[in-house]
Design goal:
Number of helices: 11
Radius of gyration: 26 Å
Distance between the termini: 40 Å
Strand content: 15-25%
Helix content: 25-40%
Order of helices and strands: EEEHEEHEEEHEEEEEHHHEEHHEHEHEEH
Largest sheet: 7 strands, antiparallel
Structural class: alpha+beta
Number of strands: 19
Protein backbone atom coordinates (compact mmCIF):
# COMPACT_ATOMS: atom_id res chain seq x y z
CA UNK A 1 0.00 0.00 0.00
CA UNK A 2 1.47 3.34 -1.01
CA UNK A 3 0.53 6.97 -1.51
CA UNK A 4 1.24 8.19 -5.04
CA UNK A 5 0.24 11.82 -4.61
CA UNK A 6 -1.00 14.34 -2.06
CA UNK A 7 -2.87 17.58 -2.72
CA UNK A 8 -3.08 20.14 0.10
CA UNK A 9 -5.07 23.38 0.13
CA UNK A 10 -5.48 26.01 2.88
CA UNK A 11 -3.68 23.83 5.43
CA UNK A 12 -1.15 25.95 7.30
CA UNK A 13 1.55 27.05 4.83
CA UNK A 14 -0.21 25.92 1.66
CA UNK A 15 -2.95 28.25 0.40
CA UNK A 16 -3.25 27.29 -3.26
CA UNK A 17 -3.57 23.59 -4.13
CA UNK A 18 -0.12 22.12 -3.54
CA UNK A 19 0.67 18.81 -5.20
CA UNK A 20 3.47 16.42 -4.29
CA UNK A 21 4.16 12.98 -5.75
CA UNK A 22 5.88 10.15 -3.90
CA UNK A 23 7.99 7.13 -4.69
CA UNK A 24 6.58 3.79 -3.62
CA UNK A 25 9.37 3.09 -1.11
CA UNK A 26 11.58 5.92 0.27
CA UNK A 27 10.94 9.67 0.06
CA UNK A 28 13.14 12.37 1.60
CA UNK A 29 11.70 15.87 1.92
CA UNK A 30 14.45 18.48 1.73
CA UNK A 31 14.11 22.26 1.92
CA UNK A 32 14.69 25.37 3.98
CA UNK A 33 12.95 25.97 7.28
CA UNK A 34 9.29 26.89 6.73
CA UNK A 35 9.28 25.17 3.32
CA UNK A 36 6.42 22.92 4.44
CA UNK A 37 8.16 19.62 5.21
CA UNK A 38 6.47 19.12 8.57
CA UNK A 39 3.13 20.30 7.22
CA UNK A 40 3.18 17.59 4.55
CA UNK A 41 3.85 14.89 7.16
CA UNK A 42 1.11 16.27 9.43
CA UNK A 43 -1.35 16.41 6.53
CA UNK A 44 -0.82 12.76 5.62
CA UNK A 45 -1.01 11.62 9.24
CA UNK A 46 -4.22 13.50 10.06
CA UNK A 47 -5.99 12.03 7.02
CA UNK A 48 -5.00 8.43 7.77
CA UNK A 49 -5.41 8.51 11.56
CA UNK A 50 -7.56 11.51 12.46
CA UNK A 51 -4.84 12.58 14.89
CA UNK A 52 -3.07 15.95 15.06
CA UNK A 53 -0.39 16.69 17.69
CA UNK A 54 -1.37 13.49 19.49
CA UNK A 55 -5.07 14.37 19.76
CA UNK A 56 -8.21 13.84 17.73
CA UNK A 57 -8.36 16.52 15.05
CA UNK A 58 -12.06 17.09 15.78
CA UNK A 59 -11.00 18.49 19.15
CA UNK A 60 -8.08 20.42 17.70
CA UNK A 61 -9.76 22.55 15.04
CA UNK A 62 -8.44 26.08 15.34
CA UNK A 63 -7.81 29.08 13.13
CA UNK A 64 -4.09 28.25 13.26
CA UNK A 65 -4.62 25.18 11.10
CA UNK A 66 -5.84 27.39 8.26
CA UNK A 67 -3.65 29.30 5.88
CA UNK A 68 -3.25 32.78 7.35
CA UNK A 69 -3.67 34.59 4.04
CA UNK A 70 -6.91 32.73 3.29
CA UNK A 71 -8.28 33.62 6.73
CA UNK A 72 -7.33 37.28 6.32
CA UNK A 73 -9.03 37.45 2.92
CA UNK A 74 -12.20 36.01 4.41
CA UNK A 75 -12.24 38.41 7.40
CA UNK A 76 -11.62 41.35 5.09
CA UNK A 77 -14.58 40.30 2.93
CA UNK A 78 -16.80 40.25 6.03
CA UNK A 79 -15.59 43.69 7.03
CA UNK A 80 -16.14 45.35 3.66
CA UNK A 81 -19.51 43.69 3.05
CA UNK A 82 -18.41 41.60 0.04
CA UNK A 83 -18.74 38.29 1.84
CA UNK A 84 -16.93 35.27 0.43
CA UNK A 85 -17.33 31.67 1.52
CA UNK A 86 -15.47 30.72 4.71
CA UNK A 87 -12.17 29.03 3.81
CA UNK A 88 -11.91 25.25 4.08
CA UNK A 89 -8.97 22.91 4.47
CA UNK A 90 -8.72 20.14 1.88
CA UNK A 91 -6.22 17.28 1.85
CA UNK A 92 -6.40 14.50 -0.71
CA UNK A 93 -4.39 11.28 -0.72
CA UNK A 94 -4.12 9.42 -4.04
CA UNK A 95 -3.26 5.73 -3.71
CA UNK A 96 -1.53 3.32 -6.02
CA UNK A 97 -4.04 1.57 -8.27
CA UNK A 98 -5.33 -1.65 -6.72
CA UNK A 99 -4.67 -0.49 -3.15
CA UNK A 100 -8.26 0.27 -2.11
CA UNK A 101 -10.68 -0.54 -4.98
CA UNK A 102 -13.65 0.34 -2.78
CA UNK A 103 -12.27 3.91 -2.51
CA UNK A 104 -12.24 4.37 -6.30
CA UNK A 105 -14.24 7.14 -7.95
CA UNK A 106 -14.17 10.72 -9.22
CA UNK A 107 -14.88 12.42 -5.91
CA UNK A 108 -11.59 14.31 -6.01
CA UNK A 109 -10.58 17.86 -6.82
CA UNK A 110 -9.44 16.77 -10.30
CA UNK A 111 -12.79 15.04 -11.04
CA UNK A 112 -10.84 12.11 -12.46
CA UNK A 113 -12.51 8.72 -12.80
CA UNK A 114 -10.98 5.44 -11.69
CA UNK A 115 -8.79 6.98 -8.97
CA UNK A 116 -8.45 5.48 -5.49
CA UNK A 117 -8.08 7.87 -2.60
CA UNK A 118 -9.34 9.81 0.40
CA UNK A 119 -10.58 13.40 0.57
CA UNK A 120 -10.35 15.12 3.96
CA UNK A 121 -12.13 18.39 4.68
CA UNK A 122 -12.30 20.83 7.57
CA UNK A 123 -15.15 22.97 6.33
CA UNK A 124 -18.11 25.11 7.32
CA UNK A 125 -21.15 22.99 8.21
CA UNK A 126 -24.40 23.98 6.54
CA UNK A 127 -26.36 22.94 9.63
CA UNK A 128 -25.13 26.16 11.26
CA UNK A 129 -26.35 28.47 8.46
CA UNK A 130 -28.91 30.29 10.62
CA UNK A 131 -26.47 30.87 13.49
CA UNK A 132 -23.77 31.96 11.07
CA UNK A 133 -26.00 34.51 9.31
CA UNK A 134 -27.04 35.92 12.67
CA UNK A 135 -23.40 36.21 13.74
CA UNK A 136 -22.41 38.02 10.55
CA UNK A 137 -25.22 40.54 10.98
CA UNK A 138 -24.76 41.29 14.66
CA UNK A 139 -21.05 40.98 15.40
CA UNK A 140 -17.74 42.13 13.98
CA UNK A 141 -15.62 39.09 13.20
CA UNK A 142 -11.97 39.27 14.19
CA UNK A 143 -11.23 35.57 13.83
CA UNK A 144 -12.47 32.56 11.94
CA UNK A 145 -15.74 31.21 13.46
CA UNK A 146 -14.36 27.71 13.97
CA UNK A 147 -17.37 26.72 16.11
CA UNK A 148 -19.22 26.26 12.81
CA UNK A 149 -16.60 23.93 11.32
CA UNK A 150 -16.34 20.15 11.26
CA UNK A 151 -13.85 17.56 10.02
CA UNK A 152 -15.03 14.91 7.55
CA UNK A 153 -13.47 12.12 5.50
CA UNK A 154 -14.70 10.85 2.12
CA UNK A 155 -13.47 8.16 -0.22
CA UNK A 156 -13.17 9.12 -3.88
CA UNK A 157 -16.30 7.00 -4.33
CA UNK A 158 -17.99 9.78 -2.27
CA UNK A 159 -18.77 7.59 0.75
CA UNK A 160 -18.17 9.26 4.11
CA UNK A 161 -15.56 7.45 6.19
CA UNK A 162 -14.42 7.26 9.81
CA UNK A 163 -10.60 7.45 10.14
CA UNK A 164 -10.55 4.55 12.58
CA UNK A 165 -11.74 2.23 9.80
CA UNK A 166 -9.48 3.48 7.00
CA UNK A 167 -7.45 0.35 6.07
CA UNK A 168 -4.20 2.23 5.42
CA UNK A 169 -2.48 3.52 8.55
CA UNK A 170 0.49 5.80 9.22
CA UNK A 171 2.77 6.24 12.19
CA UNK A 172 4.48 9.56 12.96
CA UNK A 173 7.96 9.49 14.48
CA UNK A 174 9.36 12.77 15.82
CA UNK A 175 12.36 12.02 17.99
CA UNK A 176 13.00 15.70 18.70
CA UNK A 177 10.01 15.91 21.04
CA UNK A 178 9.70 14.45 24.51
CA UNK A 179 6.15 14.79 25.73
CA UNK A 180 4.53 13.91 29.01
CA UNK A 181 0.81 13.17 29.17
CA UNK A 182 -1.07 13.61 32.45
CA UNK A 183 2.22 13.51 34.35
CA UNK A 184 3.12 10.08 32.97
CA UNK A 185 6.36 9.21 31.28
CA UNK A 186 4.99 8.53 27.78
CA UNK A 187 7.62 5.86 27.20
CA UNK A 188 6.56 3.97 30.33
CA UNK A 189 3.10 3.82 28.78
CA UNK A 190 4.59 2.74 25.46
CA UNK A 191 6.55 -0.09 27.07
CA UNK A 192 3.54 -1.20 29.11
CA UNK A 193 1.20 -1.34 26.16
CA UNK A 194 3.60 -3.07 23.79
CA UNK A 195 5.90 -5.37 25.74
CA UNK A 196 4.26 -6.41 29.01
CA UNK A 197 1.78 -9.22 29.56
CA UNK A 198 -1.31 -8.76 31.78
CA UNK A 199 0.35 -10.71 34.60
CA UNK A 200 3.37 -8.35 34.43
CA UNK A 201 1.13 -5.32 34.83
CA UNK A 202 -0.66 -6.96 37.74
CA UNK A 203 2.69 -7.59 39.45
CA UNK A 204 3.72 -3.94 39.00
CA UNK A 205 0.38 -2.73 40.38
CA UNK A 206 0.75 -4.88 43.46
CA UNK A 207 4.35 -3.79 44.06
CA UNK A 208 3.28 -0.15 43.74
CA UNK A 209 0.47 -0.63 46.24
CA UNK A 210 2.87 -2.26 48.70
CA UNK A 211 5.21 0.72 48.29
CA UNK A 212 2.37 3.11 49.15
CA UNK A 213 1.42 1.03 52.20
CA UNK A 214 5.03 1.07 53.42
CA UNK A 215 5.08 4.87 53.03
CA UNK A 216 2.02 5.23 55.26
CA UNK A 217 3.49 2.89 57.90
CA UNK A 218 6.86 4.63 58.00
CA UNK A 219 7.57 5.95 61.55
CA UNK A 220 8.76 9.34 60.28
CA UNK A 221 5.60 9.80 58.20
CA UNK A 222 3.37 8.77 61.10
CA UNK A 223 5.12 11.30 63.37
CA UNK A 224 4.73 14.05 60.77
CA UNK A 225 1.03 13.22 60.34
CA UNK A 226 0.51 13.49 64.12
CA UNK A 227 1.96 17.04 64.02
CA UNK A 228 -0.21 17.99 61.04
CA UNK A 229 -3.28 16.51 62.69
CA UNK A 230 -2.61 18.42 65.93
CA UNK A 231 -2.24 21.68 64.01
CA UNK A 232 -5.52 21.19 62.15
CA UNK A 233 -7.85 20.90 65.14
CA UNK A 234 -9.77 24.00 64.06
CA UNK A 235 -10.76 22.27 60.84
CA UNK A 236 -13.35 19.57 60.23
CA UNK A 237 -11.49 16.29 59.97
CA UNK A 238 -7.79 15.50 60.39
CA UNK A 239 -5.14 16.33 57.82
CA UNK A 240 -2.36 13.90 56.93
CA UNK A 241 0.13 13.14 54.21
CA UNK A 242 -0.36 10.08 52.03
CA UNK A 243 0.90 8.70 48.77
CA UNK A 244 -1.79 8.97 46.09
CA UNK A 245 -3.69 5.70 45.74
CA UNK A 246 -5.10 7.02 42.49
CA UNK A 247 -6.76 4.83 39.90
CA UNK A 248 -5.86 1.35 38.79
CA UNK A 249 -2.91 2.42 36.64
CA UNK A 250 -1.77 5.35 38.83
CA UNK A 251 1.66 3.74 39.11
CA UNK A 252 2.37 4.88 35.52
CA UNK A 253 2.63 8.48 36.73
CA UNK A 254 4.90 7.46 39.61
CA UNK A 255 7.55 5.68 37.54
CA UNK A 256 10.14 7.04 35.15
CA UNK A 257 12.09 5.41 32.36
CA UNK A 258 15.82 5.09 32.98
CA UNK A 259 18.75 4.63 30.63
CA UNK A 260 21.70 3.00 32.39
CA UNK A 261 20.31 4.21 35.70
CA UNK A 262 19.74 7.80 34.51
CA UNK A 263 16.17 9.18 34.12
CA UNK A 264 15.30 9.29 30.44
CA UNK A 265 14.70 13.06 30.43
CA UNK A 266 18.27 13.58 31.71
CA UNK A 267 19.95 11.16 29.30
CA UNK A 268 21.91 12.45 26.33
CA UNK A 269 19.80 13.87 23.51
CA UNK A 270 21.34 11.42 21.05
CA UNK A 271 20.43 8.43 23.22
CA UNK A 272 16.92 9.80 23.63
CA UNK A 273 16.45 10.14 19.89
CA UNK A 274 17.59 6.60 19.13
CA UNK A 275 15.54 5.02 21.91
CA UNK A 276 12.42 6.99 21.02
CA UNK A 277 12.71 6.05 17.36
CA UNK A 278 13.32 2.39 18.15
CA UNK A 279 10.35 2.28 20.52
CA UNK A 280 8.15 4.01 17.97
CA UNK A 281 9.18 1.57 15.23
CA UNK A 282 8.49 -1.40 17.48
CA UNK A 283 5.09 -0.03 18.47
CA UNK A 284 2.11 -2.20 17.55
CA UNK A 285 0.70 0.66 15.49
CA UNK A 286 3.96 0.89 13.52
CA UNK A 287 3.83 -2.81 12.76
CA UNK A 288 0.32 -2.37 11.33
CA UNK A 289 1.15 0.88 9.51
CA UNK A 290 1.92 0.97 5.81
CA UNK A 291 3.20 4.55 5.87
CA UNK A 292 6.09 5.59 8.15
CA UNK A 293 6.43 9.36 8.62
CA UNK A 294 9.72 10.52 10.16
CA UNK A 295 10.53 14.06 11.26
CA UNK A 296 14.26 14.90 11.05
CA UNK A 297 15.80 11.61 12.28
CA UNK A 298 19.23 13.27 12.52
CA UNK A 299 18.31 15.43 15.55
CA UNK A 300 21.17 15.51 18.12
CA UNK A 301 22.98 12.52 16.58
CA UNK A 302 26.63 12.10 15.66
CA UNK A 303 27.42 10.47 12.32
CA UNK A 304 28.16 7.12 13.98
CA UNK A 305 24.90 7.09 15.98
CA UNK A 306 23.00 8.37 12.95
CA UNK A 307 24.42 5.54 10.88
CA UNK A 308 23.23 3.13 13.56
CA UNK A 309 19.76 4.66 13.52
CA UNK A 310 19.54 4.57 9.72
CA UNK A 311 20.34 0.87 9.84
CA UNK A 312 17.52 0.32 12.34
CA UNK A 313 15.09 2.27 10.17
CA UNK A 314 16.05 0.46 6.95
CA UNK A 315 15.74 -2.95 8.60
CA UNK A 316 12.57 -2.30 10.57
CA UNK A 317 10.45 -0.62 7.89
CA UNK A 318 11.34 -2.91 4.99
CA UNK A 319 8.35 -3.19 2.67
CA UNK A 320 6.72 0.01 3.94
CA UNK A 321 6.59 3.48 2.40
CA UNK A 322 8.87 5.96 4.18
CA UNK A 323 8.29 9.71 3.97
CA UNK A 324 10.91 11.59 5.99
CA UNK A 325 11.98 15.20 6.35
CA UNK A 326 15.67 15.96 6.77
CA UNK A 327 18.39 18.62 6.71
CA UNK A 328 21.15 16.03 6.75
CA UNK A 329 23.26 15.13 3.72
CA UNK A 330 24.23 11.97 5.62
CA UNK A 331 20.59 10.83 5.80
CA UNK A 332 20.13 11.68 2.13
CA UNK A 333 23.17 9.64 1.14
CA UNK A 334 22.24 6.74 3.40
CA UNK A 335 18.66 6.46 2.17
CA UNK A 336 19.42 7.38 -1.44
CA UNK A 337 19.88 10.72 -3.19
CA UNK A 338 17.55 9.53 -5.92
CA UNK A 339 14.74 9.61 -3.33
CA UNK A 340 15.08 13.34 -2.59
CA UNK A 341 12.10 15.65 -3.06
CA UNK A 342 13.16 19.31 -3.08
CA UNK A 343 10.72 21.86 -1.62
CA UNK A 344 10.86 25.58 -2.33
CA UNK A 345 8.31 28.40 -2.68
CA UNK A 346 5.22 26.19 -2.58
CA UNK A 347 6.60 23.94 -5.31
CA UNK A 348 8.48 20.65 -5.33
CA UNK A 349 10.70 18.62 -7.60
CA UNK A 350 11.98 15.07 -7.20
CA UNK A 351 15.50 14.00 -8.09
CA UNK A 352 14.08 11.19 -10.20
CA UNK A 353 12.25 13.68 -12.40
CA UNK A 354 15.44 15.75 -12.68
CA UNK A 355 17.31 12.66 -13.84
CA UNK A 356 14.69 11.98 -16.48
CA UNK A 357 14.79 15.56 -17.71
CA UNK A 358 18.58 15.49 -17.80
CA UNK A 359 18.57 12.29 -19.87
CA UNK A 360 16.08 13.79 -22.29
CA UNK A 361 18.14 16.99 -22.68
CA UNK A 362 21.30 14.95 -23.19
CA UNK A 363 19.68 12.94 -25.96
CA UNK A 364 18.31 16.04 -27.66
CA UNK A 365 21.61 17.92 -27.46
CA UNK A 366 23.71 14.87 -28.41
Amino acid sequence: MAIEKVIIQNFKKFKNPFEIKFNENINLLVGDNESGKSTILEAIHVVLTGMYAGRNIRNQISTYLFNREAVEEYLKSVENGHLIAPPEIMIELYFKSGTLPEYEGNGNSESRDGIEGIRFLISFSDKFNAEYESLIKTEKLTSLPIEFYEARWFSFSRDEKIPRFIPIKSVMIDSSNYRYQNGSDVYISRVVKDFLEPEDITAITQAHRNMIDEFAQNEAIQSINEKISAASTIMDGKLSLSADQGVQNSWESSLVTQVDGIPFAHAGKGAQCIIKTQLALSHKQAEKASIILIEEPESHLSFSRLSELMGVIEKTVFGKQIIASTHSSFVANKLGLENLILLSDDSCCSMKSLNLDYSRISRESG
